[in-house]
Specification:
- The protein is α/β, with parallel strands linked by helices.
- The protein has two domains: about 210 residues, Rossmann fold (3-Layer(aba) Sandwich), CATH 3.40.50.2000; about 180 residues, 3-Layer(aba) Sandwich (Rossmann fold), CATH 3.40.50.2000.
- Helix content is about 40%, strand content about 15%.
- The strands form two sheets. Strands 3-2-1-4-5-6-7 form a seven-stranded parallel β-sheet, with helices on both faces.
- α12 links the parallel β11 and β12.
- α9 packs across α14.
- The radius of gyration is 21 Å and the shape is globular.
């Protein structure tokens, strides 16, 4: 099947696009021909040298998935749509992720002209994320996402949802249940594995292998919907018992500067390391270096609808996990770690301390975590679900005819 996949963000600079990238790669392994289109962020940013410091991934020059940048500015929307006009016979399926107009409108346009089925991958509650952003960050073009999040289900044949919270929103929006497919996040089981060594990272952190210090890690983008400040506050309660502990925050974004400032003002300032954005291929080595990994969240509309990527990757790496019990987190974690009260630094610290004090429990949690990733939370299983959704979408379109 020739699949046109559209994402509103540039995978070279936006780590959350990994969902589409990995699903496209899995589909290609099965003989499908995915083409991923995205707006070229480099066209929007004047200071390219500064932007390129934040690059997390290089587009493959040769590979089974075609990656094609579109014109990147909002005003280029209609030029991008016109460019797709002559390509409508090149595809059998349209796949749209997220509800932003720079992906939605070109996707619906080419689907309408080519009489193609459309699948919508709903992976975040975008309206709630926009509500959490400063008003100045929500320019008019972005505001349309709120409308499309409500309206888009009526224009597509099938929907995949990343979480139970999003499934309930879809049902509330009167999407027929047989058109909704639950597709949680996954992990690359080869990249994230208990066999990956974190020794190089531990050495870079200045940890003496003869006197090992515990490493507690949080990884994830620090944009509008992160709660990493909980780890800053929890560290102050962990350090009195483990003064040599190191806290590592892997990821970048607009929240990084404020997070660093919060850490500098805390009692554990010297225990923290912030990497900023790093190349995607380096993330597994940082996760491997950790003794305990953290997925901390507040309890709000955004987190209740999340399927956290960090959690799937922690599971695949076979790590001992402390996670906030909100949304789908408990379902994902199962018996592979500790659930704590969301939004509570005290409970987060208590969970970290419990795991640091019990190496055997950490090992058991790690083995259970890996099994959950192998059985459920991986991109191969996600591709299984997508193929089922695509088949349903095609059957609905052809039945209409």
């Amino acid at each position: 099947m020739r699949i046109l996949m559209l994402h509103p963000h540039d995978p070279r600079y936006c780590p959350w696009v990994v969902r589409m990238v990995k699903l496209a790669e899995e589909l290609a392994l099965r003989g499908h021909q995915p083409t991923v289109l995205f707006p070229d962020l480099e066209m929007k940013i004047k200071n390219l040298a500064e932007l390129r410091k934040q690059k997390v991934w290089d587009l493959p020059k040769n590979g089974p998935v075609r990656f094609e940048p579109l014109l990147g500015r909002d005003r280029h929307l209609f030029r991008n749509m016109r460019a797709l006009l002559g390509r409508r016979r090149q595809f059998d399926m349209v796949h749209i992720q997220k509800c932003y107009p720079n992906a939605v409108l070109p996707g619906l346009f080419v689907a309408y002209l080519g009489d193609l089925p459309v699948h919508y991958d709903w992976d975040d509650y975008e309206s709630a994320i926009l509500d959490a952003l400063p008003e100045g960050d929500i320019y008019p073009f972005r505001r349309l996402a709120r409308y499309f999040e409500r309206a888009l289900p009526a224009y597509v044949q099938t929907i995949s949802v990343a979480s139970e919270g999003l499934r309930q929103l879809a049902l509330h929006g009167r999407v027929p249940e047989d058109r909704i497919f639950k597709l949680p996040v996954g992990a690359d089981l080869a990249q994230f594995s208990p066999q990956v060594s974190g020794e190089r990272v531990r050495k870079a952190l200045g940890i003496n292998p003869k006197k090992p210090a515990p490493v507690i890690l949080y990884q994830g983008q620090l944009e509008g919907a992160h709660d990493a400040e909980l780890l800053i506050d929890a560290a102050a309660m962990v350090l009195p018992k483990y003064p040599e502990a190191r806290f590592v925050v892997v990821g970048g974004g607009r929240g990084l500067a404020a997070l660093k400032e919060r850490a500098r003002a805390s009692e554990g300032a010297r225990a923290f390391t912030f990497t900023g954005y790093i190349k995607r291929e380096m993330v597994p080595y940082y996760v491997a270096a950790a003794d305990v990994v953290v997925a901390c969240f507040e309890n709000n509309a955004v987190t209740r609808c999340k399927s956290p990527l960090k959690l799937a990757e922690y599971l695949a790496a076979g790590k001992a996990i402390v996670a906030s019990d909100v949304g789908d987190v408990g379902m994902m974690l199962g018996d592979a770690g500790l659930l704590v009260r969301p939004g509570s630094a005290e409970h987060l610290a208590e969970g970290i301390l419990q795991l640091l004090a019990d190496p055997e429990r950490r090992a058991v949690c790690g083995r259970r975590a890996r099994r959950r990733a192998e059985n459920i939370y991986n991109w191969s299983r996600g591709a299984d679900i997508l193929e089922e959704a695509y088949a349903r979408a095609r059957s609905l379109l052809f039945r209409r005819e």
